[in-house]
Amino acid sequence: MIKLDGKKVAGALDEKMSQRVATLEEKGITPGIAVVLVGDNSASAVYVRNKQRRAEKLGMRSDLIKFDADVTEDTLLKKIEELNNDPAIDGFLVQLPLPDHIDEDRVINAIDPKKDVDGFAPDNVGHLWIGEPQTKPATAAGILMMLDFYDVDLDGKNVVIIGRSNIVGKPVAAMMLAKNATVTVAHSHTKNLKELAKTADVLVVAIGRAKFVNKDYVKDGAIVVDVGMDRDENGKLCGDVDFDDVQDTAAMMTPVPGGVGPMTITALMDQVIELAEERANG
Ligand SMILES: Nc1nc(=O)c2c([nH]1)NC[C@@H]1CN(c3ccc(C(=O)N[C@@H](CCC(=O)O)C(=O)O)cc3)C=[N+]21
After folding, report:
1. Which of 140, 199, 184 is nearest to 166 (CA)?
2. Probe ligand 1: pick from 145, 229, 231, 260, max atoms within 8 Å of CB?
3. Rounded to two decimals, what is the model's pTM?
4. β-bridge partners, 230
5. What PROSITE patterns does the record point to (predicted)?
6. Engineering a disulfide at 204: which of 72, 217, 225, 235 sits with its beta carbon 3.0 to 4.6 angstroms away?
7. Domains in the chain, start-ordered, CATH in brackets?
8. What is the ipTM of this complex?
């Protein structure tokens, strides 16, 4: 089994990205990202910490804007308006999930689509599905970057994605479809999930349940991509896939941590640098 080593790939791609940042710096431009965090969610906290670290490594500006869980929707919307109009910020995102008293759709709709580095705004979702992407959701983009790095050709492959979220499942489906894969999106109402998953040449798992997928779900020689950020019975970070159980069945597989997570951040930073390059070129 070949381990799809997101940490290694991210490290390799960082070099080129640092160069792009240096080139922008010569033109007096620092790529700037802002992250809005409301309350405390453990997956978000890991993400925020690693993003700050990577931005620093690449020489980018990264602002963290923190609100308590009881912040009003109005306060949040005002901050978004500010970020929409801040010329030093090329892109920003609001960490999800948001507390229940805040209307997530309203918040996402308030973000200027041009600065929507998450690619969650309806405009960008539309662009993605018609095959003319603008900003792309970072996790999906990171997965595609990683598979590309390992020369995985998706053309004609049977892909099964378990999970239909707007953040992961749907954008992965759109992007793999654009690579000519045959894509099936499974979810909690799917019948005979094990049998279906076993038809997959590429199995993408994004359901948020610790070690849910074992070798009964995996075809011999399949490629398994684990998007989970869960905690096991000992509170240790783990994925949606039981790595130890699946490792002798899969041909290639991402670990957690060190798989999709670092690639998500690579894709996000790549997006921000690209927006800064657009700013530099007027
Ligand atoms: N608007 C929004 N967009 C998101 O993309 C988004 C979000 N909200 N909310 C939270 C989730 C979670 N997420 C992670 C990304 C990378 C790691 C990551 O760096 N993982 C490391 C963890 C390593 C360590 O333990 O520090 C790894 O997998 O190796 C974690 C979590 C993005 N999300």
Report:
1. 140
2. 229
3. 0.97
4. 238
5. THF_DHG_CYH_2
6. 225
7. 27-112 (3.40.50.10860), 138-261 (3.40.50.720)
8. 0.96
